[in-house]
Design goal:
three-stranded antiparallel β-sheet
Length: 319
Amino acid sequence: MLQSREPELRERHGISFRITGIASRRLGWIADPNGLNVENVEHVERAPSPASGKSAPHSTNVHTWLKSAQADVLFEATSLNVENGQPAVDHIRAALNHGAHAITANKGPIVHAYRELRDLAVAQSKRFLFESTVMDGVPIFSLFHELPVIHLQGFHGILNSTTNVILSEMENGLTFDESLEKAQSLGIAETDATHDIDGWDAAVKTGALITVLMDVPIRLEEINREGIRGLSAEAVRAAKKEARPYKLVCRGRKTEKGITATVRPEQIPLTDPMAQIAGTSSYIYFETDIFPGLAITEENPGLYATAYGMLADFVRVVR
C-alpha cells in the first residue's frame, strides 16, 4: 500500500519515504539506510542497496536493527500475545527510545502497556498510534481525538470477524467445525483460531477501547469473557428462526462502581442493528454525554483495510 499510494503521498501530502528495514521470522533483521529493494520480498535478504550496491546487512535484535536502518517510523505488526503483549511492547518501546514514531496493528500493547508507551512517546516528542487495532482501519481512536472534552459512557458492538463468519455459516446449515474450516479457507481465521473462538481477540479489543477512550486501565481478567465454542449448530439455527440470532457482543460501560465489561454470545432481536451484521462486517455503538448514540458499521473489509489504518497513522505522524 505504501508503494501503490506513493504518488499521492508525495503530490498531495508532501511525503516521501524509503523502506530501510524489514524484520520477520523468515527473513530476520534486515536493514540498509540507503533503502531496500523490496520489489521481490522473497529475496530481499540478498537485495542490493540502490545507492551502495552492497548486500543489505543483517542485524541481530530490534535495537541494532533500528539503529542500522536509521528509522524515523516503525510499523509493528507482530501477532497478538494475549498474556503480556510481547514482543510488540518491546519493539514499540525500542522504537520510541530510538527516536522513531511507533505505529502498531497489535492490540496487546494497548491493553498491557498503553500508559507507559503513551507517556514515553510524549517524553520523546514522538507519536504512538494504533488505529488498526480495532475495526481494521476505521478511524475510531482518531475520531475521539477530534472530539475534545467528550465523555464516553459506554459502548457495545461486534468486533471479531472470525466468530461472525462462523455463526453466519452455522445459520446456513454448516456444523461448527465446517464453519471454522470455511473461515480458515477464506483466510479470515488463523490455523489456531483459539483467540477468536474463545473470545480473547474480542476481549483485548474491548480492553483497548476502555483503556484508551475511557482512560481506565483494565486487565483482561476483569472482562467477563465467554466465547462461541459452547454454541451448537442447532442452537444457532433455532435462534435465527426465533428472529433473535446469536452474535458475539462486546460491551463496556462506566458505572458508579467502576467499569463493567463483557464479551459473550447474545441473542439479538432483529430490531437491533447488530442483528444485521454478518460475514466479516463489524459494528460499534458509542454512548457519550454529548451524542446519545454514535454508530459505525464496517462492511466486509479485506486485508487492505488493516494496512490502510497503518498508512493513515503514517500520514498523521508525518504531519
